[in-house]
Each structure stands twice: as structure tokens, then as C-alpha cells.
Design goal:
By secondary structure, this protein is mainly α. The protein has one domain: Tetracycline Repressor, domain 2 (Orthogonal Bundle), CATH 1.10.357. The protein is 70% helix and 0% strand. The longest helix has 26 residues. The radius of gyration is 18 Å and the shape is globular. It starts with a helix and ends in an 11-residue tail after the last helix.
Length: 189
């Protein structure tokens, strides 16, 4: 059983990286199994369908993003966690490392066209990501606004072919978030 679970985790890890790097359409069962060092025939011993694999992969990718944000928050000076998380998220490194970066940025617009179970997993991920900001004292409105601004800025920064424009987009978003009004109902933490 331990070997089967280890193999399953390898497949999910490879699928999560492939989704972030190539989007859902760039993820075939055969390619993922090959990347995991396995044969295509073994896939159905682990998943009922490609959608089931994508669901677990998007959950994994989201959990990894959240863990990175939490580590940044833990290392930030008192009262500076939100700004530190925003700075890390909008960093040059995050732009460059699409295959290890935020899955929402990589496949956000594609997710609307995925199976309901994939969309539900993505929805849970968005809520959990907003909760990371709420854990640092952001209100519900503020957490969603910060998240929206960060993701939008990262999508645009990766989309444009002018690195200076990409940097300006991320810097502008970061500045806007720093100047944010503090209002709304306190998020449940």
C-alpha cells in the first residue's frame, strides 16, 4: 500500500507541475505517466478519470502556493505579513517559475471550462488563499481584493512580452495594495 500511495503522489506532483506549466489542455494522461516514470496502463489503478487526476493536481498546486505564502508570513516582521506575502507573490522569481508558481495564475481562465469537480477544487483553493490573508488580519473584502489584484497583475505580467512593462504592472499592483483602504467586516480566522 505504501508503494501505491507513493506512486499516486508522484503522479499528482507531476500533474500539478504540468498544469501550471502547460495548462489543462497540455496535460495528457500518457505524458503525466511518462513523466512519473510509469506506463499509461497503470493510470486507472490510481484515478477514475483524467478529471479526477486534474482535481487532485489543482488541489496539490493550490496547497503548495498557500504553504509558500504562510512561510513568508511567518518570516515577516510583526504587522508586515500581508505586504511581505504580496511582495513575494509579485516577485521576479514567481514570474519566472511558472511551473512551480500559483496555479490560479496559470489556469484561472481555463478552469471555468473544466469539469465541475475541478472547478470545485479550484474554488476551495481560492477561498483558502484568501483565508491566508484573513489569518493576518485582512477583512473579507480586503482579502478578496488583494488576491484579485495579485492574480490579475501576475497574469498580465506573464502575458506581456515586454519585461519592463511586466515589472511596472507588478510594481503598480503592489503599490496599490499597500495603499489599500482598511474597511469591511473582519474575516473569520
Amino acid at each position: 500500500m505504501a508503494k501505491k500511495q507513493e506512486t499516486h503522489e508522484t503522479i499528482v506532483r507531476e500533474a500539478a507541475a504540468a498544469i501550471r506549466a502547460h495548462g489543462y489542455q497540455g496535460v495528457s494522461v500518457a505524458d503525466i505517466m511518462k513523466r512519473a516514470g510509469l506506463t499509461h496502463g497503470g493510470f486507472y489503478a490510481h484515478f477514475a478519470s483524467r478529471d479526477a487526476m486534474c482535481t487532485e493536481a489543482i488541489e496539490r498546486a493550490g496547497a503548495e502556493s498557500i504553504e509558500r505564502l504562510r512561510r513568508v508570513a511567518e518570516q515577516a516582521p510583526r504587522g508586515g505579513a500581508v505586504d511581505a506575502m504580496v511582495e513575494a507573490y509579485l516577485s521576479d522569481r514567481h514570474v519566472a517559475e511558472a511551473a512551480r508558481g500559483c496555479a490560479i495564475v496559470a489556469v484561472g481562465t481555463e478552469t471555468a471550462r473544466q469539469a465541475p469537480e475541478v472547478r470545485r477544487a479550484a474554488t476551495r483553493g481560492v477561498r483558502a488563499m484568501a483565508e491566508v490573508f484573513a489569518e493576518q488580519g485582512a477583512t473579507d473584502d480586503e482579502a478578496l481584493g488583494i488576491l484579485s489584484c495579485m492574480i490579475g497583475a501576475m497574469v498580465l505580467a506573464r502575458m506581456v512580452d515586454d519585461p519592463m512593462l511586466g515589472t511596472a504592472i507588478r510594481t503598480s499592483a503592489q503599490d496599490l495594495i499597500r495603499r489599500r483602504p482598511r474597511r469591511g467586516k473582519k474575516a473569520a480566522g
